[in-house]
Structures are given as C-alpha cells and as structure tokens.
Amino acid sequence: MHAAVGAIAESGPATWSLRELARRAGVSHAAPAHHFGDKTGLLTAVAAEGYTLFADALERAGEDLYDVGLAYVRFAVDHRAHFEVMFRPELYRADDPEVNAARRRADEILRHGVRTVAPAGAPRETHRPDETDETGETGESGETGESGETGESGLDGESGLDGESGLDGDRTAALAAWCIVHGFAELWLSGAFSGDLGEDPVAAASPVIRRLFAR
Questions:
Q1: What pTM does this model have?
Q2: Whole-angstrom Cα distance, residue 97 to residue 199?
Q3: What tens digit of pLDDT does each residue of 27-41 get?
C-alpha cells in the first residue's frame, strides 16, 4: 500500500502498473495481484484507506464548519495521493463496503457542520415576535397557526436554504460547502493560484472559508 501511495504521489493514479509497483516494493511481480487482485482492487484499497483517514481528520476538527473546512484542505495537501484517488470513482470499485462506510462518515461530519451555519447571504425567513403577516398570525418562533405549522426556518426547520425542505436544504448547503473547500484544495494542488497567497494552504484558505460561511 505504501508503495502504491508513493507511486501515485509521483506520477498520478493512472500511469503505473502492478509490475512497476512490485519492483518499487521489492516483492515478486505476482505479489500485488495476489493481494489485491488487479490495479482496480489496489486503488479501491487506497480509496478506502483515504476515506478512513479523511473522516478521522474531519472528526478531529470538531463540529465547527470553519474548522472542518480547514481540515479538509489540510488533508488534501498532506494526503495528496489518497485525495487524487478518492474523488475519481471511475478508478476503483465505488460500491466497496469499506469505501462506502468511511465516505458516509465523512459526509455526515460535513452535513453536521452545515446544520450549524448557513452560507453567508443565504436567505433565511425571520419574523419579529410582534410582526403580523397577511393572515393576521404572528411569526413568533415556535407558535403555531391554524395550519399547525411552526414559524421555524433554516436547515433544521420547515424550510432549508432557498425555501427547500429541511433535508434538501441540508443537502444543498453541504454541496455548497463541499464545492468551496474541495475547489480551493484542487486549485491549490494544481498550482493555479498566484504566489501572493503564500506557501501555507490552510492559512490561505482560512479567510476564504471564514468569508463564505457565518460562524
């Protein structure tokens, strides 16, 4: 596994063979195939290990989405080989149980962080306790009108972001958070940013994530 991660870090996930990997690891040509079956099997093991490390890193960051976002970027840089495999499901068996279990862990951590904040500028319905709507009912949080509906809004309330249901709102917000932090990580790894951002990717990502998400 260590030899595979090294090969991916040097030349990417698609350009090496199991024979080359065996040579790097100092084992027989048949050893990798015996252990993993084929290259897809080996990359599946790399993805499973990557998602496990990824979920562990996000979990250690705590419940604040800002800290989780920084941990995401840090993982991408520190575990570049795993990162390059994990998000290319065409390279491995995406239905592998170990991959799916670790990926679900990471997804849930991100979703939990999203529930505590909303992207800056996202519309959130709010009413003052003394504000009256057209039906004559107050919008005080927790009160119910004749329909029995509460006046709650947001990711965990009646409506999520953009007026979606709570579940769909969580999904949309999680997707937005993922696009922001993953996009930053990919751009950093590709060298697309100019040098004026400095040499520390986490420090560079910090004001971006802080600006886009209310804490």
A1: 0.71
A2: 37
A3: 776 776 767 788 888
In 3D, which of 156, 134, 132, 154 has the Cα closest to residue 143?
Answer: 132
Type and span of the H or E element at 106? helix 97-115
For every residue of 161-193, DSSP letters joined together read GGG--HHHHHHHHHHHHHHHHHHHHHHHHHT-S
Contact 65, 44 (CB under 8 A): no
* CA-derived radius of gyration, the chain: 22
Distance CA 183, CA 166 (A): 25
Name the DSSP class of 37. Answer: S
Task: State pLDDT tens for residues 52-98.
Answer: 999 999 999 998 889 999 999 999 999 999 999 999 999 999 999 99
For residue 213, give the 3-state DSSP assignment: strand
Element (H, E) at 45: helix 39-60
Q: How many C-beta neighbours within 10 Å does residue 207 have? A: 10
